[in-house]
Amino acid sequence: MLRLKKSKHLKKVSLAEIREATQSFASENCIGKGGYGMVYKGYLSIAPDSRTSILVAIKRLNEKQGRQGSPEFLTEIHLLSGKKHPNLINLFGYCVEHNEKILIYEYAERGSLDMFLKDDNRTHNLTWLERLKICVGAARGLHYLHNHVGKHEAIIHRDIKSANILIDENWVAKVSDFGLSTLLAGSDRDEVVSQACGTLGYVEPEYAKTDIVTKESDVYSFGIVLFEVLCGRLCTRIKINGGFLSPPSSAKDYYLNNSLDEIVDPSLREAMNFNSMDTFVEIAKECLHDDREERPPMGRVVEELEKSFNLQIRSEKVKIIFQHFDLNKDGGLNKEELGALIVATNSGLKRSTDDRVYHMVRSDQEKGLTCEGLLQIYDNCDVDLDMDYEVLSLKVNLHNGKKPSFTAWERYEKVLKIFQRFDLNNDGGLDPEEIEALVSATHPNSKVNMIIDYLEGNPYSLGFSEHYEEYAVGKKGLTLRGLLLIYDQGKLDLDLDFQALEQRGRNVADMHLWLLVFLVACLLPNTLLNLYPLRLKDLLWHMVLSYLKGSLC
Description:
Elements: E1 11-12, H1 15-22, E2 30-34, E3 37-44, E4 54-61, H2 63-68, H3 70-80, E5 91-97, E6 100-106, H4 113-118, H5 120-124, H6 128-147, E7 153-156, E8 165-167, E9 173-175, E10 182-185, E11 191-193, H7 205-210, E12 212-214, H8 215-231, E13 239-240, E14 243-244, H9 249-256, H10 274-287, H11 298-325, H12 335-345, H13 355-360, E15 363-364, E16 368-369, H14 371-380, H15 385-395, H16 405-422, H17 432-442, H18 448-455, E17 472-473, E18 477-478, H19 480-488, H20 494-523, H21 526-529, H22 536-552
Parallel strand pairs: 1-5
Antiparallel strand pairs: 2-3, 3-4, 4-6, 5-6, 7-10, 8-9, 11-12, 13-14, 15-16, 17-18
Helix pairs in contact: 6-8, 6-11, 8-10, 10-11, 11-14, 11-15, 16-19, 16-20, 17-18, 20-22
């Protein structure tokens, strides 16, 4: 008999409520199916003491899983209960009634990554930046599982694949399906002996041979996903010259033979920045290393993918700037066009574009400075691309009325950093005290009461919809999505808040440095401090007080 401990993090939902939400599991509400059973969408009330329903995904185990899948069902509940991270699928509740086993998750608007890789049309609509954003998010989620779920604890997923990476409406990736996952507990434990499981094509060969699974087994599987994203095909469907490859060995061979272009998704080639792709491919290759010890930890995978993502954003910003000032559309900036760019930015670009630099970078002698040449100037000279881009965005119609997608993604990253900084108890929500700390840190004595009113159930004064509980959940308070909504609706100025918090962080770091200097001075022998006409300790103390006075004014 299946036994579940009552969880304060999950809601137990009745079968009657689920039948009503799915219209008795109607086929038109089915959004996915597999060996485990079916997934439906429907509206359910999730927050405690709430009558407002939100759209959720309802996973119903089939009859076979109902009899035999109890361990996986319990594992998913146990491992996801209380785990909150922007890149993990959120488990809201469960149902165990009349031999039914049902799990209730947050709804991922765009479905799973594999759906984009199965359908050529959808894949070609997936830009390189969108793919990078998905990979970065999934890597962050896996890094959290491996390193941050608890003291001396880690979760090995054991079934990382593109079908288990879900995507929400903002292209944020969510790692899902923890039925096969296992917990590592203990500071000296880094492997588990268990019968090999997972999905053919993604399972690490060593795990299949030895039944020993480690974090590096997940890293290998994630490397397969990275090559899938690069090629625009599932791992069993990489097509070359009318045939299909069987990665990873095939993908690695093409990389080692410098012929990776043959398997890269053709729809990406023109838009991809070479350095971005090279960084991406290098870390993907390392993930597939035969020796487990040579594979990178997920923390480094995150860093390299973020680097690839930022390189692509820089390239696209330069491309937008270049296209705006390439007035005759000949693929080069002549001296007049480059001069117009320099005047518009009034930045260090002027000091970096004399004749010597102009001819050092890539240029067409007739047309002038190429787009790649302009990027090279920004990369190699003391010029702030982000500052120039912001200045031009304000001065000229740089986007022709339509902002590029990476603008929204940069906003998301800023909101995420703010949210994580003030979610002090890491419960996935900002309660009134945490919200007050956030607003007090950015705008002292302003807007606090307005947001507190919202959290206490008066959302209409802020213009929120009747489904506001999608954004504020019970006692946890304002979710990341809710904070995004507030900033998107202009209730708070994101850029000003982010700059204020960055400056506050620098001030705190400086203060800590001065206090450290003073403490060191206090520990020095008085005989040494008194060797100088003006006592060193008094001087240091005076400097610390002066700094504190200045920073608090």
